Amino acid sequence: MNPRKDTSTSFTKFPTDILQQIREIYEEQFPQIKGKLAFTGLIYPEEICFSAAMKQEGRLAYAQFQISADVDSQGKIDHFKVIQNCVDAAATFLAEHLENAAEEKEPMDYPLGWTEFQFEKDTLFFQFSSENPEIEQMANELLGETEDALVQEKKKLH
Question: What is the CA radius of gyration of the chain?
């Protein structure tokens, strides 16, 4: 997942236990998902990015709901509330996607670039991707972006 802001280069990954709690909540809220769920959370100095990706059994493509929210490095914003809003917003888009699929409607026309929207009185940004997070993780490993350091730098391809 690429950040929304060009200035977002150093990041900290969401802690594993937080991602596990998110997984448990999604599995409880969406028992109809028969397939894979993948989550990514990155905290940059000026934004938080969260992605919830789903691949239903029998499908090749993932449905990846990516959310970004502005934060400030001065600590004036409650980062946990921002993370919660990002997780909840992604769940809202996922629920809409599943409802649409269950009713066999035409697929939603989600934005493929960052698009601003309002969620619980906050401004967030959303984009949809069909990228496979497993392949993205393999690519990140090749770029050396899976290290366990608390703060990591986004590598750029030349």
Answer: 15
Residues 6+ apart with CB under 8 A from 122: 69, 82, 85
| Average pLDDT of the chain to the nearest whole number | 86
**Tell me, what's the pLDDT at 125?**
98
Q: How far apart are CA 86 and CA 88, in angstroms?
A: 5
Compute the distance between CA of residue 124 and CA of residue 82 in angstroms, rounded to an integer.
9
The confidence score (pLDDT) of residue 154 equals 63
Closest CA to 98 of 58, 61, 54: 54
**66-107, pLDDT tens digit by residue?**
999 999 766 677 888 999 999 999 999 999 998 887 777 766
Tell me the C-alpha distance between 145 and 42, whole Å: 12
Enumerate the β-bridge partners of residue 55. Answer: 36
Tokens in use for 130? Answer: 């069909």
